[in-house]
């Protein structure tokens, strides 16, 4: 079975996000003043082969914990789409 | 009305994604061989104030085109959640 994993890795809520702050200021400089908060993270798409959805879930969790997210400063969430 | 915009900015499909390639190799080095393709982009959360969903849609499209995405090399999509 082929799956597409759509993963979001975001800075944890308690942690300052200087990139998000820069984006907010950049938007204001462009005249877009309606934005009160901006947070920036990564969006990762993985295509993978797995025997079941549970196995795919396990592989993606593993990939996030070992490589894609720094779990001290970031949190991740993902959804799986069967292709 | 308050909205949360969940934006994904990804490299266009025709464009090489060296960061994605590096992630694929990194996963293989960790023994995760089931991943056949990886693409890396940005995930951006904006909180904004708008009179209607159509107005929020317009503000976020504007922000993406003017600042958040380089539309020559990247594509963006987003969904709006009313808070």
From TrEMBL, chains A, B:
Gene Ontology cellular component annotations, sorted alphabetically: cytoplasm
Catalytic activity entry: N(2)-formyl-N(1)-(5-phospho-beta-D-ribosyl)glycinamide + L-glutamine + ATP + H2O = 2-formamido-N(1)-(5-O-phospho-beta-D-ribosyl)acetamidine + L-glutamate + ADP + phosphate + H(+)
A Gene Ontology molecular function term of the record: phosphoribosylformylglycinamidine synthase activity
Annotated GO biological process: 'de novo' IMP biosynthetic process
Pathway(s) of this molecule: Purine metabolism; IMP biosynthesis via de novo pathway; 5-amino-1-(5-phospho-D-ribosyl)imidazole from N(2)-formyl-N(1)-(5-phospho-D-ribosyl)glycinamide: step 1/2
UniProt superkingdom: Bacteria
Keyword annotations from UniProtKB, A to Z: ATP-binding, Cytoplasm, Ligase, Nucleotide-binding, Purine biosynthesis
UniProt KW ATP-binding keyword: yes
Coiled-coil annotated spans: none
InterPro entries in the cross-refs: PurS (IPR003850), PurS-like_sf (IPR036604)
Subcellular location: Cytoplasm
Keyword ATP-binding: yes
E.C. code: 6.3.5.3
Subunit structure of this chain's protein: Part of the FGAM synthase complex composed of 1 PurL, 1 PurQ and 2 PurS subunits.
HAMAP family: PurS (MF_01926)
UniProt function note: Part of the phosphoribosylformylglycinamidine synthase complex involved in the purines biosynthetic pathway. Catalyzes the ATP-dependent conversion of formylglycinamide ribonucleotide (FGAR) and glutamine to yield formylglycinamidine ribonucleotide (FGAM) and glutamate. The FGAM synthase complex is composed of three subunits. PurQ produces an ammonia molecule by converting glutamine to glutamate. PurL transfers the ammonia molecule to FGAR to form FGAM in an ATP-dependent manner.
Family to which this protein belongs: Belongs to the PurS family.
Protein name: Phosphoribosylformylglycinamidine synthase subunit PurS
Organism: Sandaracinomonas limnophila
């Amino acid at each position: 079975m082929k799956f597409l994993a759509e993963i979001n890795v975001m800075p944890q809520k308690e942690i300052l996000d200087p990139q998000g702050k820069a984006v907010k200021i950049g938007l204001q400089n462009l005249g877009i003043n309606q934005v009160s908060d901006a947070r920036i993270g990564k969006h990762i798409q993985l295509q993978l082969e797995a025997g079941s959805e549970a196995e795919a879930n396990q592989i993606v969790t593993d990939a996030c914990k070992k490589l894609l997210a720094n779990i001290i400063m970031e949190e991740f969430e993902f959804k799986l789409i069967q292709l």
